[in-house]
Amino acid sequence: MGHKVSGTRNKRQVLEYRDSQRSKVYNAERAVLWVDEILGQKITLEQATELIHQGYRRYRPRTIERPSGLPKVVRGPAGHIAYYTQTGNKISLPTWAWTPAVALHELAHSITGTVCIRYKEGMHGPIFVRTLIDLVKWYSGKDVAPEFKERKVKVASTTKAMKPLYRGHATKLWT
To answer: CA-to-CA distance for 71 and 86, rounded, in angstroms?
Structure first.
């Protein structure tokens, strides 16, 4: 369980929990997802946006009726990090991050952000990782859970994880 870390940002109190497995998650992604021919392939920003919106609707199907609820995907500045922010419900993807692996990582943040806080987990905690693994399987058909666990990444059980409300497969708009 993470430790509370408090600070201020924009004159507002921020409550976060220690993200103790962040580096393990990034290392596992680099070793498993980024090198995969499907997950590591270069795509366009429009394709990344469509992938993110399909995945988001899988967990939050009512956003079909309310498109403003979908995360806004924007082109991030070159050389910067990819990130999701709840403020404005926005995902920023610089050109280096235009791959399914990075798009799914940021999508998992948009789905699990408030849940991780509710369970007092870091943003790369076991619930996030389980959701990411489920998204990877939904998109590519590959179960990467054993490889993440082999790298000592904690993965939430399927009973504690976010449940997709729609169990269909991704519609691939590219090959």
So the answer is: 9
